[in-house]
Write a structure and sequence with these properties.
Elements: H1 10-23, H2 30-42, H3 48-59, H4 66-76, H5 111-125, H6 128-142, H7 156-163, H8 169-177, H9 184-217, H10 219-226, H11 241-264, H12 276-283, E1 304-310, H13 316-329, E2 335-341, E3 345-347, H14 358-368, H15 380-390, E4 399-404, H16 416-425, E5 428-433, H17 447-451, E6 455-458, H18 462-471
Parallel strand pairs: 1-2, 1-4, 4-5, 5-6
Antiparallel strand pairs: 2-3
Helix pairs in contact: 1-4, 2-3, 5-6, 6-7, 6-9, 8-9, 9-10, 11-13, 11-18, 15-16
Length: 472
Amino acid sequence: MVAAAAPGGLAGHLDGFVRAVREAGIPVGISQAVDAAEILTVVELLDREQLRHGLAAVLLQRGNQRQIYDTLFDLWWPLGDRPQFVEVTDEDDDGDGEAMTLEAPEGDLDPAARMREELARLLAEGDEEELARFARRAVGLLGQTSPSPSGQSWFSYRVMRALSPDTLTSQLLEGLLNGEAHGGLAEQVARGEVRERLRSFKDAVDTEVRRRQADERGRERIAKSAVKPLADQIDFLRAQQGDLAELRRMVAPLARRLAVRLSARRRHGREGRLDFRKTVRASLATGGVPVVTHHRPRKIHKPELVVLCDISGSVAGFSHFTLMLTQALREHFSGVRAFAFVDSTDEVTRFFSPGADVADAIRRIGREADVVAYEGHSDYGNALEVFADRWPTVVGPKTSLMVLGDGRTNYRPPGLPVLADLVRRSRSAHWLNPEPRRVWGSGDSAALKYAEVVDMVECRNAAQLADFVTTL
């Protein structure tokens, strides 16, 4: 059952939910919002899962948006039924229609022990809806601390510590195996099922804690802290190891699109340059009028790409992603040469052989690449000079140059003349900067100076990189 707004306020409630979904980074247009309103007229509003799936069908475009959507849905459309065997008294009512305590315990078991026994039974049965209702009661009984001025009085860890569901694993496993011998495929399947049921219960507890906090502090405030950004909106500079694993799956399509865009810039039409002599000869048959023109065969060159990547500690997450992008680009460019730098520069193309593991390549770069000349702090000026001196012919009229870094020079010479010469010799040049545009030029940042000689683009996340590729 759904605890929804009153009928007169249902449209406003839906509007707030749609706004929250949009603010979480999921694009929702006017037509989708209209479709969502239409969904409310065709689904059974008291059937919570039917409502969940109906709204998801019109509001979501990609599978990776579902986790954010589910978190917001649970905040805006929480369970609204009251547990049947919980006594409700004026003293015990916590203000949301649910009791804070259970009936008096039977025998010597305290309420937590009784709930633990019930949890074991529900986990053995595997009914997710009943587990969710049990989680509501568990949070009401075990999840609250003493009220504080900030209102942050509900915590998942208190419930999980009191019930210790992980310690029920052996009991649940025995029940699922039903006397079968341990080992083999049956045990693996059973262990997977146990992990899934324990995860489902923990998610239900987290959902209920967020709901109660939202009642105290407001849905909008809780939504901002509870919702994790989509993978393509995570700032490269703040990306964690798990985020990079998700970003790795986004690299291949971005690399393919980037290769297509850079290739398109090289196309000058299907024919090559005009063959004047053949055209004049052919015109003799038409009285000197060049009705038919002849062209020289056009030499088709696959695009060539040179990547200069800052791998200093200040941009570690960004450099990890860009090196993954470099590996993916090798599949689409005839010649991709990758160079990494801190205060010196070294070519790292050799670490990205076909089929090489990206994570292993990045580790090898950290160990083997000669990118530190002095103390290991960023020095763009020296790094650019080393690059120009050691590889003077690598950038030419067929080359697309891409520089990846934050442009923070530690107040050292930025090497603008060297960069300007590289840009002049290349066919096209772009600089992707992982810092927000508003901080360019602040402190030791030379980004605004570099932007005077090269096209500099803010690229803080994969979504902005996709926008850059689209507009290239």
